[in-house]
Amino acid sequence: MARVIGDSCISCGSCAAQCPVQAISQGDSHYEIDANTCIDCGACEAQCPVGAISEA
Fold first, then answer.
1. Which residue, 1, 4, 44, 46, is CA-closest to 21?
2. What's the whole-model pTM score?
3. What is the distance between the alpha carbons of residues 55 and 42, in angstroms, rounded to a whole number?
4. Do the Cβ atoms of 45 and 30 come closer than 8 Å?
5. What are the phi and psi torsion angles at 32 (to 5°)?
6. What is the pLDDT, as a whole number, of residue 26?
7. Which of 18, 24, 19 lies closest to 5 in space, CA to CA?
8. Closest of 35, 34, 33 to residue 48, by C-alpha
9. Could you give the CA distance from residue 36 to residue 29 in angstroms, rounded to a whole number?
10. How does pLDDT run along the chain (56 residues), one tens digit per residue?
């Protein structure tokens, strides 16, 4: 199951830099995870300074 980025995202980009499969990109209001690419490794969730990433 892919991770999701919530509205508390501050668009710092820390998660995108940690994603081994480049599944994270800047969206309209905050970063977003492509569920089809995400391998659910959790690297992004561990890196998020505001805890905006969780399991879907």
1. 44
2. 0.91
3. 9
4. no
5. -135, 150
6. 97
7. 24
8. 33
9. 20
10. 789 999 999 999 999 999 999 999 999 999 999 999 999 999 999 999 999 999 98
Q: Strands, DSSP E only, in 1-56?
A: 3-5, 24-26, 31-33, 53-55
DSSP structural state of residue 52: -
- Coil vs helix vs strand at 39: coil
The DSSP bridge partners found for residue 25 are 32
Q: Which two tokens stand for residue 2?
A: 């892919």
- Two tokens at 37? 């690419």
Q: Which residues pair with 4 in a beta bridge?
A: 54
CA 37 – CA 12 distance, rounded (Å): 21
